[in-house]
Design goal:
18 helices, globular, single chain, 518 residues
């Protein structure tokens, strides 16, 4: 906990050492040999000879590695494979993870957790329970018999193995088979039953919002299940026996909740969770927008820290300030490079400029080299000599207007300016192009939202940026929850779904509430 400054005051040195490490480990890999950089020794040779890459460059190597591990990507053995689903494409991707690659990821998670213990000392008190919303870990096995896992599930399993008693539900709940709706309900049930529930870890804030919806919509069902120690959902008999053995009836808690429901007509969050003090969630990008919707439903004393910006490929930064979306890069774990949005010279961490936007490239201990994350990040100052980065949007989240490419973060700034001028906060928004003009979809939070006023304000702000506003589509409440459900029907995990910022078509008529015609 006290080594924070020492660690991040040495970011430039860490970057040099990590690159030297990976160059050494890469030399025996098939990928390095076939791409002409197996014999390099220096940073200058790395920059001159290693090509920028994306997933398609690695896919054939990973496919052969999953049959027989022969150091296709790096001179280390593969420990397991991580599976993810592409945000925009829905394409299933697999990444080979080595023991050092896994260690790099876990180090960042451990450092973040140690920092939380320092920033939120209540975490060290007895009788504190937490909710961690993650995917189940096991999925399948590769042909070479190595396991295929999800990154968040693998991290969660490590945490449960260390201190399973801290969580509101047992690890077996993550592996039990059930529908997404039933999992939502049972998660709500577990949290309401435990009066010591204090901490939330949910990289997808919209998912926690849907848990709050379950509590609002099914209070009596929750109370009855707590009273009888029963799960009123569809479960395989083996899963039911395993889970109910660890879920005892609680007459006292049920009576407390019943009184609250009888007195208020609903279950007030601040009363059912008197110890709730902290939420760790994604705060940057579109997820940060949904986090604000959650914040309005929780007690004012709850504090928020952004969970680390990460993906199946890497855990990329370590946020440490309350309510801030940025954090220093994990300079000791990966090598970072930054591609200017105008396509200029690729920069190392020591060359970036504060406040500027870049497309992020990473090189890892699991055999990714100058790998384009297709993420746009902003440099937001430095911790010591280590750059702070915040995720802004995917590089694919753009609108093409009058021959110009307008990035998602620029469009988001238009909305935020309008919100600030009018003193409001929307629940959600999306963008689309119609007749070479910009249209915007918004879900208001307030019931008395003034569509005309917001439309006129946004029209003026857009004009100042050289953008013509065509339509403002106001959708009904529940719109973004429905988007999550639709994506989940395609076999994707609801916990990790990210909603698109830029869409192809306007919402269907059933969801439209008002239209502002510019």
């Amino acid at each position: 906990q006290n080594g924070w400054n020492t660690l991040f005051n040495s970011g430039a040195d860490w970057q040099q050492r990590v690159l030297e490490d990976i160059i050494y480990l890469a030399q025996d890999s098939l990928y390095a040999k076939e791409h002409g950089f197996a014999q390099i020794k220096t940073k200058a040779e790395f920059e001159a000879m290693v090509p920028v890459s994306d997933y398609s460059d690695y896919q054939p190597y990973i496919e052969t590695n999953m049959k027989e591990d022969n150091h296709q990507l790096i001179g280390l053995a593969t420990d397991y494979y991580l599976m993810t689903t592409g945000t925009a494409t829905g394409q299933v991707k697999f990444f080979a993870e080595t023991n050092i690659g896994a260690l790099a990821r876990q180090l960042s998670i451990d450092i973040w957790n140690m920092l939380l213990m320092k920033n939120v000392p209540q975490m060290g008190q007895p009788n504190m329970k937490m909710l961690a919303i993650v995917n189940c870990a096991p999925i399948d096995k590769a042909p070479n018999n190595l396991p295929i896992l999800r990154a968040s599930g693998q991290a969660a399993k490590a945490l449960w193995e260390r201190a399973g008693e801290l969580y509101v539900f047992p690890y077996e709940f993550l592996e039990a088979e059930m529908s997404d709706d039933d999992r939502l309900y049972l998660t709500a049930l577990y949290t309401v039953k435990d009066v010591d529930f204090s901490l939330v870890f949910s990289n997808n804030p919209a998912y926690f919002n849907m848990i709050l919806d379950q509590i609002a919509q099914k209070p009596q069902k929750i109370i009855d299940d707590i009273r009888h120690g029963y799960f009123s959902v569809d479960l395989k008999e083996t899963d039911r026996l395993l889970l109910t053995a660890q879920f005892s009836a609680d007459e006292k808690r049920a009576n407390e909740l019943q009184k609250l429901f009888d007195d208020y007509g609903y279950l007030p969050v601040e009363q059912i969770w008197p110890k709730l003090i902290f939420v760790g969630t994604w705060l940057p990008g579109t997820a940060g927008r949904l986090a604000k919707d959650v914040m309005r439903r929780l007690p004012k004393n709850v504090q928020y820290i952004s969970e680390g910006y990460g993906a199946s490929e890497a855990m990329l930064n370590i946020p440490y300030e309350f309510s801030k979306p940025y954090g220093p890069i994990a300079a000791y774990a990966y090598y970072y490079e930054f591609l200017p949005l105008d396509g200029g010279k690729i920069l190392s961490m020591t060359e970036v400029q504060d406040g500027e936007y870049y497309e992020l490239l990473i090189t890892t201990y699991s055999g990714l080299y100058r790998y384009n994350m297709h993420d746009i990040v902003q440099i937001q100052g430095f911790t010591g000599d280590t750059a702070n980065i915040a995720f802004c949007c995917k590089s694919s989240e753009v609108c093409h207007l009058s021959g110009k490419t307008i990035y998602g973060f620029v469009l988001t700034e238009l909305i935020e300016r309008a919100e600030k001028m009018l003193g409001i906060l929307l629940s959600y928004f999306q963008f689309l192009v119609e007749d070479d003009q910009l249209s915007v979809v918004i879900q208001p939070y307030e019931n008395d939202f003034n569509t005309e006023m917001f439309g006129e304000c946004l029209k003026i702000i857009a004009q100042e940026a050289g953008i013509i506003l065509k339509h403002l589509y106001v959708v009904k409440k529940g719109y973004y929850n429905e988007l999550f459900r639709r994506l989940a029907l395609n076999g994707r995990s609801m916990q990790n779904i990210k909603l698109p910022l830029v869409i192809e078509e306007k919402p269907s008529a059933e969801w439209l509430q008002q239209i502002y015609h510019s």
